[in-house]
Every structure is written in C-alpha cells, then in structure tokens.
Design a protein that fits this description.
Blueprint lengths: L8 H10 L4 H19 L2 E4 L1 H16 L11 E5 L26 H8 L3 E6 L27 H8 L5 E6 L5 H7 L2 E4 L19 E6 L2 H11 L17 H4 L8 E5 L9 H16 L3 E5 L5 H27 L5 H10 L4 H21 L5 E5 L19 H6 L3 E8 L5 E8 L4 H14 L10
Parallel strand pairs: 2-3, 2-4, 7-8, 7-9
Antiparallel strand pairs: 1-3, 4-6, 5-6, 5-10, 9-11, 10-11
Helix pairs in contact: 2-3, 5-6, 10-11, 10-12
Length: 451
C-alpha cells in the first residue's frame, strides 16, 4: 500500500474493515495532503482538522469495541458549502451568508455521519451555486476552471484531498466539474436524495449527489444517503436498491441510445472522436448501441428548464436581493433581475412544457436502457472567469433523469474528458452498471494530475 491518501473510497473502507488501516491514519494523511496542495488548488471554503481527528478517534474506538458502521466507517469526505452543517459555517460562497452557522445538519450530512463518514470540511462553490466562480483551480492545469458549481468537491477528489465529496446539480454542476477534473460524478433521479438542509437554487431542479474516483465509490455514497425523508416531501418513498450488487452484473444485452441531435452539433471534434471510441468500448462489452431520435419536444423542454431556473432562483433570492443587491456577483445578479421579470403565466407554461418533455423521455426509455453522450462539449475552458457550459447536462437535470459522468480520455491539451450515461427515473442501478463496466474496460480512472 502506498500513502493512504492514494486509496479510493472502497479500498480505504475495506482496509479499515479488516483492521489494516485506521481512520486516524487515513484522516491524518488526507489532512496533510490538503495542507500541501490547498494553496495551489483552493478547493476548500474551510476545513475542520481538529474535529475530524476527534471523530476519527471515536470511530477507531468503535472498531476496537467490535462496532463497524458499514463501508463508510472512518472515511473522510468533503461537503459542498451549501449543505447545512451543525456548528460549522455555511456561506454558499457569498457575502450574504458570510458567518451563517446552521444549528442542524442537512439530511445528507446526517446520514453520512450515521454511516461513519468523517467531515473534513466544506468545499468551495460558485456563489449560491450559480455561475460566479470561486478561486478554485483545476488540478490538471491551474490555468483552467474545475467547473462549477460543485467546484471544490470535484477538485478536491481529483487532487486526492478526499476520496469522496458531495455536490449539487441544478443544470450541470456535478457531471460537468467531474468531467473537467477527470473523476466520477453522479446526479441521481430527482427525489432519490433528500434536499432538506440544502440551500435551494431552483427547488424543482436541484439534485444532491456524490463525486468520487470510481463508480463503486459513488454507488457506496449514494447507498448511504438515498431514500425518503419526512422533512422533504419531494424525497420519494421508493425502495433503495443495493447499488453495489448491480455493479457486478455484466451489461451484455442492454441497449444504449446515442441521440440523433443536440449533442453532436455542440461537441468539439476532439470530444466526438473520443466519444466514438467510448461507444466502441460499450459495443465490445456486449451493449447494443443504436442511434435514437430525441423527442420533438426535447429542445423546448430544455429551454423550459432555463425559464424555471431563472424564475425559481429569483423567487428564492428576492428578499435578500432587495436589501443587498450590491453584495451579489454580476452573473447571479443578472439571473435574479431577469427572473423577476418572468410572468407567472410564463413560469407555469414552462412547467407544462417540461412535464410534456418528461413524458416523452419516458417513452424513449421504453426503447433503450440508457442514453450515452459526451459529458461536456469540450475540456475545461482556460481561465477562471467561467465554469464552462452545462448544455450537455441540463437535459438530465430538467427532466429529473439519473446521470453518471465517468472519465473517457483526454483532449489534445491533456485535460480530461467525460462520458455521460443517463437512465430511466430511479434506475440508477442500470446507469451505474454500465458505468462500472466501461470503467473496468478502460484505464482513465487510474490517471491523476501531477501535483
């Protein structure tokens, strides 16, 4: 075994279970890694090293007493700075909430703690999870964005500062930064994971989800947090499958659809060439790949999501904005100003169009098991003023579909590229199954930035 910080979440969890690695040893190793790299990457809004070590010692004592809480026992994680954390500041990358300390944990945070995870700190986010970026840099090239809005979560995982982290996605804020940083990101179905205790951006589009280095790792994280929550009426009371069991099922015979439009005309040549190679790997795995025609209402549904985002974002922020408009960044300020001008009739019409598009996508998924696309139109853009284009991720967010991003190679610039796998509502198991098979057949998840 090398340094503990090099281990994936699943590897570290198994060593801890066997008594070959202590939670304290793993936590110290990751804290040292953060201390060494944080000045260059700037992935953390704040860390809590003393509290993390105290919790690691408590979990180590539980192991000595014969109590093991599961695969996350003793695993340090990062949490995007829009999740409430009891006694720890949650500022959402903003001046508005600077110094705000919640009195309770978000449901996701509470469930992670109950499963033995250790909170290392809060990862950076774009301001209120929109487009005004934090100072975080891409670990593969510090002159490029790590993506957003879950900027710190993706960068921290890529830099091996933590084996897993949580973000949120309203447009493309999990799958896009995961692709830009060469790691795995999972946006679950809307309603699979509770939003209780997470600052809203557009409440009918917000999805909490994990980022890690392997498909198995994100499956373990999802397993720990998924399920109904009486404090969030949108958290659907459906059975939560054993996700890791699905990973071992061969994907032979599954049908993967490649969309006929929208994605091809927006992707760069390098992305399309790499994507075609990825499709070839899927075919070699016995997956039946065929082109599918997207519903006629597809583009209108995506545009409806944009209207909904503006209207709901403005509604959430309007009280603060009236008092403190000058404390908002220019991009978020522009969204709020535009959103406040959207008539109620336009918002309701957008929800109707979105509902029609969701029904059309359900009919499409009667013909295929998954849809596969590039995760982004290109690699991470140069500079830190933009977090990149979420255009390839917005459909899954708008339609509430599960979407998994896995590494699929590198652009000529040496920056990572990602494959996006979308599935039926609440069928994360099949999406993870395809992703795990592709991951096992390719070397990309073994690559890491030279930090």
């Amino acid at each position: 075994m090398g340094e503990p910080w090099e281990l994936t979440l699943a590897e570290a969890g198994e060593l801890i279970r066997r008594g070959a690695l202590s939670p304290v040893e793993l936590t110290r190793s990751l804290l040292d890694r953060i201390a060494a790299l944080e000045p260059r990457v700037q992935a953390w809004a704040r860390t809590v090293p003393e509290q993390a070590l105290v919790e690691a010692e408590r979990l180590e004592d539980l192991l000595r007493r014969g109590t093991h809480l599961g695969p996350l026992h003793g695993i340090p994680v990062g949490i995007k700075d829009i999740y409430y954390t009891a006694g720890l500041e949650t500022s959402a990358g903003s001046k508005i909430l600077g110094g705000f300390v919640p009195t309770f944990d978000a449901t996701v945070v509470r469930r992670l703690r109950e499963n033995g995870a250790i909170l290392l700190g809060k990862t950076t986010t774009t301001e209120f999870a929109y487009f005004d970026p934090p100072p975080t840099r891409n670990p593969w090239n510090p002159g490029h964005t790590p993506g957003g809005s879950s900027s710190g979560s993706a960068a921290a995982v890529a830099a091996r500062m933590c084996p897993g982290a949580f973000g949120t996605q309203t447009g493309g804020s999990i799958v896009r930064p995961a692709a830009f940083c060469g790691v795995v990101g999972l946006k679950p179905t809307y309603g699979r994971v509770s939003r209780h205790g997470i600052l809203a951006f557009a409440w009918s589009l917000d999805h909490p989800g994990p980022i890690a280095r392997t498909v198995r790792d994100v499956a373990l994280l999802l397993q720990a947090v998924a399920g109904a929550d009486p404090r969030d009426p949108t958290a659907v009371p459906r059975r939560v499958p054993a996700y890791t069991e699905a990973l071992d099922e061969p994907p032979r015979g599954l049908i993967a659809g490649v969309p006929d439009r929208y994605f091809p005309e927006r992707a760069s040549g390098a992305v399309l060439a790499t994507f075609q190679k990825a499709v070839g790997v899927l075919e070699e795995l016995g997956i039946l790949v065929r082109e599918v025609r997207l519903p006629e209402v597809f583009e209108a549904g995506v545009e409806a999501g944009r209207v909904i985002t503006h209207a709901e974002g403005a509604a959430f922020h309007q009280d603060w904005f009236r008092r403190r408009a000058q404390d908002y960044g220019p991009k978020l300020r522009g969204l709020i100003e535009a959103g406040l001008l959207i008539p109620a009739a336009s918002y309701l019409r957008a929800q109707q169009v979105r509902a029609a598009a969701i029904q059309a996508m359900r009919r499409l998924f009667a013909e295929v098991d998954v849809l596969v696309t590039p995760a982004t139109p290109g690699p991470a853009p140069e500079g830190l003023a933009s977090t990149g284009d979420p255009v390839f991720n917005a459909p899954a967010s708008t339609f509430g579909l599960p979407a998994l991003g896995v590494p699929m190679g590198f652009a000529p610039s040496g920056l990572p590229l990602g494959l996006q796998i979308m599935g039926r509502h609440f069928d994360e198991a099949t999406v993870l199954r395809v992703g795990a098979a592709y991951e096992a057949a390719t070397p990309w998840h073994h690559s890491r930035p030279a930090l």
